[in-house]
Amino acid sequence: xxxxxxxxxxxxxxxxxxxxxxxxxxxxxxxxxxxxxxxxxxxxxxxxxxxxxxxxxxxxxxxxxxxxxxxxxxxxxxxxxxxxxxxxxxxxxxxxxxxxxxxxxxxxxxxxxxxxxxxxxxxxxxxxxxxxxxxxxxxxxxxxxxxxxxxxxxxxxxxxxxxxxxxxxxxxxxxxxxxxxxxxxxxxxxxxxxxxxxxxxxxxxxxxxxxxxxxxxxxxxxxxxxxxxxxxxxxxxxxxxxxxxxxxxxxxxxxxxxxxxxxxxxxxxxxxxxxxxxxxxxxxxxxxxxxxxxxxxxxxxxxxxxxxxxxxxxxxxxxxxxxxxxxxxxxxxxxxxxxxxxxxxxxxxxxxxxxxxxxxxxxxxxxxxxxxxxxxxxxxxxxxxxxxxxxxxxxxxxxxxxxxxxxxxxxxxxxxxxxxxxxxxxxxxxxxxxxxxxxxxxxxxxxxxxxxxxxxxxxxxxxxxxxxxxxxxxxxxxxxxxxxxxxxxxxxxxxxxxxxxxxxxxxxxxxxxxxxxxxxxxxxxxxxxxxxxxxxxxxxxxxxxxxxxxxxxxxxxxxxxxxxxxxxxxxxxxxxxxxxxxxxxxxxxxxxxxxxxxxxxxxxxxxxxxxxxxxxxxxxxxxxxxxxxxxxxxxxxxxxxxxxxxxxxxxxxxxxxxxxxxxxxxxxxxxxxxxxxxxxxxxxxxxxxxxxxxxxxxxxxxxxxxxxxxxxxxxxxxxxxxxxxxxxxxxxxxxxxxxxxxxxxxxxxxxxxxxxxxxxxxxxxxxxxxxxxxxxxxxxxxxxxxxxxxxxxxxxx
Length: 797
Fold this sequence. Notes:
Layout: H1 21-30, H2 32-49, H3 59-72, H4 84-96, H5 106-109, H6 113-122, H7 128-171, H8 174-179, H9 186-203, H10 209-223, H11 232-246, E1 250-252, E2 258-260, H12 263-288, H13 309-312, H14 318-324, H15 329-341, H16 351-363, H17 367-378, H18 384-395, H19 400-412, E3 418-420, E4 423-425, H20 432-440, H21 443-462, H22 466-475, H23 477-490, H24 506-513, H25 518-524, H26 531-549, H27 582-591, E5 598-601, E6 616-617, E7 632-636, H28 643-651, E8 656-664, E9 667-674, H29 676-679, E10 684-689, H30 690-693, H31 708-721, H32 729-736, H33 741-763, E11 770-772, E12 776-781, H34 783-791
Parallel strand pairs: 5-6, 5-10
Antiparallel strand pairs: 1-2, 3-4, 7-9, 8-9, 10-12, 11-12
Helix pairs in contact: 1-7, 2-7, 3-4, 3-6, 4-7, 7-9, 7-24, 9-10, 9-11, 10-12, 11-23, 18-19, 21-26, 23-24, 31-33, 33-34
């Protein structure tokens, strides 16, 4: 490979390699056929490990987005991760011809990407399991491509044995096996960073048309995969600075071949090359979005996204704007009360608050106040990044969806509920990712890394010259820079929701660790140490055994520093429980039948009914097939609805009772309240996802440790709810007269949320009775225990 120096040849005093069987065996173990075989087995193992895993949370919108990009050329779904991974996942789904909601459907018009995905996968008669496997098979191919690239780079540095060692470390990595076959952007980002860094390093040593093209492709894959692609800029700048500082001549093979020896000319040539790169990547971005600025396809009535531009550009909230246009404090209080009555946010931006502000401008503001409001809304954002993105939007420098995706990622990364070792924060911990790296990386890999360092030091000791040391480090420089820059960005990040966010650091680590293969060369020499080579073989065997033993539960992998059975006390979300074990929960319930009902609190996006699970769902989070059913149902009735049709409608809601009818703008509607027995909880088996057991899932509710404030709110809600869950129909009827159905709906939903939070706070104080692949915990509660959890003293959890 012309980019990097070839591995050091053996000295002239070393004996020639043994001919015959031993040399042939080495070629068989490290040659191209062996690489192809390893990658093929890796693809089969990766897809097999996910065969009976349910859809993880992010896969729903990634798959839905990919399908919609191809079918409608519409980019409203999942804009925060580029479009390339989604397009890849969408290819088999489009070719299979699965039914998709019509462009005029309500969920599509409202840009409700989660509801859209739910309808598509679970409510239109499509085979959701087959769709999931189709998309994942393509995702696994991308993981194979990254594995091949890891092998190729390691082989160019450390020979055939080094390439095979890096490949084995890659295919045996629980992190790669956990996320490599999922329809998410994490593996695609890892591929993009790795390929882009390799392409930049190649271009810095020889400027040719093929390298310009290869570098452009690598960077394009990266910027179209994840918005963290901006980190490639400091990576490139560091590599360019070191390359120019070292002063090596720069060959240029464009037109007449030249050799640039002076640093100013090298800098100028590289600047021109990267301008070409920027233009190519810019064109690739526009091509990926169909060369169209507008995010929407052919649905003119469609809303843009669930979150408006005002939010992602970090404009002051409506309350702050109204305070700047001359409204009196009394008038602001009136507006706030009116918006609260209509369930319109006053302190944050939503589409409802944008619409309410426009309505206010047309009905209540003076012309001068309306003008000042428009000026504030059109003003440049205060922060630097939103200001730059607003500039790009005004001048249409990039497709609208790409600008919005970057802005959304930037804004949402400021705060995010996260859990670590029993603590909950919204701004994360600087040691979150170092901690996940320490407890979710196999221990044999750390030992291999130590052998790699020892091999490098041993090589330096044989020829202790500064030039030799620098030459050795220079060959691996881009790997170190990628590794260091990404860590420097990850450590202060507030997005501490999953180990997967540092998947990018593993491929360069595997290549660097492949330096340990040098011990095999030293062993073949006369008098060379055998112990390190034997230790390396034993470590690989241990890694194979551990990876096989943990099959197929790689998302829940921990290396023993943290016991997998207690991992839920240390990490949750995509580091442990990302919704992957719904099929295992169904199998567990089938294998453990009980006379008492089972309750399911599932953190995920798959449908329990899809896997034949009949447990009662008590997840209080909305927008999830496993969520608690709405407390109040409003069922529209056609004017011609007869008794038989009416009863048929009611049978669709077995947990609700009919309480009367009401008039609505669309006609008459039946009002159904949840039955008392469907609200109350009873003794039985409680299957609780590890992520829901910890208090991190309530953006506006009782997150964090159970406090006196939460306890007081719960007790107040409990007192208000008692008449409605009475067994006496007259007591319930009298209670329903106190509030409107919509108010009862809000009250019931809030009560169930606080009740679940109190239950989990109590459960955190005891050990589970069983677990399902470590991600779903099983608690078998008696009536006395349940009474203690819901009616006893305030829990400490």
